[in-house]
Design goal:
The chain contains six helices and two strands, in the order ααααααββ. It is mostly helical. The protein has a two-stranded antiparallel sheet. The chain is globular. It starts with a helix and ends with a strand.
Length: 123
């Protein structure tokens, strides 16, 4: 009877590695979800602050990408790139740039793989 219950749930009692594989999938999914949640929070924060700086024109004036900034090697390079991007802005952007560079620390550029349970590649 126990074997029937296990088989009905889709788990084969003959595959001892299946449980480990499922557990690893959950751990990977949770890790990815946490990283993606943090990135989403940074993006939402950026959008709010850009609207404060540029108003409703923020969506059309700037193409600011977290991944583009993460490709740069240092916080100094990120800050310099942001200063150049925000040169035309009439508002003071120094605080925004400083906060954004701080929020980017610890984030990774993530590429999602579509095959198996492998972890995403980080650069």
């Amino acid at each position: 009877m126990a074997a029937e219950r296990v088989a009905r749930k889709g788990h084969s009692p003959r595959e001892p590695g299946a449980a480990l594989q499922r557990r690893q999938a959950r751990v990977t999914a949770r890790y990815d979800r946490g990283e993606l949640q943090r990135r989403l929070e940074v993006e939402r924060w950026m959008e709010e602050r850009l609207r404060d700086l540029y108003g409703e024109q923020a969506d059309t004036l700037l193409d600011l990408s977290i991944d583009d900034l993460l490709e740069l090697q240092s916080d100094e390079e990120r800050g310099n790139k942001l200063q150049v991007m925000f040169t035309p802005c009439s508002q003071n952007t120094h605080e925004f740039i400083r906060e954004l560079v701080t929020k980017l620390q610890g984030l990774h550029k993530v590429q999602v793989q579509r095959v198996g349970l492998e972890e995403p590649k980080r650069h």
